[in-house]
Amino acid sequence: MHFPHPDPLNDTDTVNTPNLTITPSTHRLSDAERTKLISNPGFGRIFTDHMVVIPYRDGAWQQGELKAYGPLNLDPSCSALHYGQAIFEGFKAFSQPDGSVKTFRPEANAERFNRSAARLAMPALPPALFMEAADALIKLDAAWVPKAVGESLYLRPLMFATDPFLGVRPGSEYLFVLFASPAGAYFPQGVKPVTVWISEDYVRAAPGGTGEAKCAGNYAASLAAQSQAQAKGCDQVVWLDAVHREYIEEMGGMNLFFVYKENGKTVLVTPELTGTLLPGITRRSLLELAADLGFEAEERKLTVQQWRDDVATGRMTEAFACGTAAVITPVGTVKANGFEMTINNGQNGPVTLALRDALLGIQHGTAADTHHWMHAI
Ligand SMILES: *Cc1c(COP(=O)(O)O)cnc(C)c1O
Q1: Does the structural domain 20-183 have CATH classification 3.50.30.10?
Q2: So what's the pLDDT on residue 4?
Q3: Which of 70, 116, 211, 377 has a C-alpha 20 to 30 A away from that of 140?
Q4: CB distance 263 to 223 below 8 Å
């Protein structure tokens, strides 16, 4: 097989994947076509030349394949389509100033993937295999990693039950799939605060449920609430706890942070992980990054009433949401049944922007990676 790609990263010989059989795509895009696509990638609508698939059967992960991106062949009785045994992850690869590519905390995604799998009675995928698949795919499709600050290659691992069987029980056959999608800057026009709707009609997760797992069903169940938020003129929904309907949990598919000024100190507060929140890796990173910027950080519960009071008294100066896709999104306006308030006059706050810059600096390799978060491909 002949490869006209001069980039050594694009040479399959250099991709060391004992657990994956490589079948290069016969219809890779030309440099010109690819460059055109990734000049304005948007989010989640362009996919690279290749993907990884690894089947699970007979109680074991089988030899996987790294092959052309394309449709999967599924039986209509495929159990994930009926009963929702399906989980996913999301993390990013960033182009570095020296031309190399690094991923941000992929081991943390591999671990969380397995925690989600356990909750949905699915088999664990060895983290080393998760890493091997990601490194191999990124290496083979390295030309697809956008270069500008704020841009990245988004990696989407997923796993679902493939048994052709309508009985309700954990599957005995699964497919792990990993593909990649070039992602543009989330705010191409510059960072802009969002307006959020506090949902009283819907909850995302209840104690004992699947709130901690990154499973497909959580997202399906969130869509009606998101539509309602949009009908109320808001960008995103804010979830409250299912029991008291009082404690703030998350915003859409992102974790929330609140910035306090207390006795001259800056304190970041984020809702504590109660079992119903998704433990975000961006959230965890910001808690660890806070001290570097001279901020204190705390995980605790916060009610809607407290949120209102603390904004009214001026103790809370900023609020923002964080997650892999958008990194950090300021919250400018909060709406709910019976009240509306703005935070920081609906403007981007300095603490929010400082954290955003610090995180993006580490990810793009323009700031020192003192926490050893970046993984070289
Ligand atoms: C994925 C996700 C997050 C953010 O997690 P990151 O690891 O930071 O991307 C937050 N909330 C929900 C509901 C999510 O699914």
Answers
A1: no
A2: 43
A3: 116
A4: no
Q: Please provide the DSSP assignment of 329-342 as one string.
A: EEEEEEEETTEEEE
Does domain 194-376 fall into CATH 3.40.50.720?
A: no
Does this model's pTM top 0.90? My answer is yes
- Torsion angle, CA of 157/162/166/168, rounded to 10 degrees? -50
Work out the number of other CB atoms within 10 angstroms of the CB of residue 20: 21
pLDDT at residue 224 tops 60: yes
User: Which of the residue ranges 6-10, 16-20, 173-177 has the most confident prediction, judged by mean pLDDT?
Assistant: 173-177
Which of 89, 255, 273 has the most ligand 1 atoms within 8 A of CB, as the residue to mutate? 255
Pocket of ligand 1 contains residue 282 by CB under 6 Å: yes
Contact 150, 193 (CB under 8 A): no
- The pLDDT value given to residue 12: 59
Residue ranges per domain, the chain? 20-183, 194-376
- CB of 106 shorter than 6 A to ligand 1: no
Whether 321 lines ligand 1, by a CB cut-off of 6 Å, is: no
* pLDDT bracket for residue 187 (50, 70, 90): confident
Sign of CA dihedral 374, 51, 46, 164: negative
Report pLDDT for 130. Answer: 98
Q: Among candidates 77, 175, 90, which has minimal Cα distance to 125?
A: 175
Q: Which residue spans within 120-205 are E strands per DSSP?
A: 152-161, 174-183, 194-198
Q: How far is the CA of 324 from the centre of ligand 1 (A)?
A: 7
What residue's CA is closest to ligand 1, atom 14? 253
